[in-house]
Amino acid sequence: MIILSIKTDQPESEFTLFNDLKILNSIKYQAHRDLGLTIHQKISDLLKGQKLDWSDVEGVICFKGPGSFTGLRIGLSVANALAYGLGIPIVGEEGEEWQSKALNKVLKHRSDQIVIPFYGADPHITEPRK
After folding, report:
1. Is the peptide bond preceding residue 66 cis, with omega within 30 degrees of 0?
2. How far apart are CA 120 and CA 61, in angstroms?
3. Is the pLDDT of residue 124 over 90?
4. How much is the average pLDDT of 74-78?
């Protein structure tokens, strides 16, 4: 089963491609404020490096937080859209062992259907001006 792993909670984003539990390839790069502009190309490069296409992805796992509001929002939006569009399982986890927990769930064909980010704190929303 080809599984795409997405972690975008920090300025350094990480994408890993698995065949079941075996790592096929991985990309880490300093995305910073360019994540929205680069995420699709980086995932495409990762797939092409293994002679695979988007349609070859059979599951998505992702780190759901805590972390950067914008990074999690972008990464999880892409992960959710990919899973929905391809009709494949998606699993989100948190904590240090997130990847192994998520891999085990998706390999058992479990799916969260949609992954909601966990930011680790309440949002800081300013009061509207009157």
Report:
1. yes
2. 19
3. no
4. 96
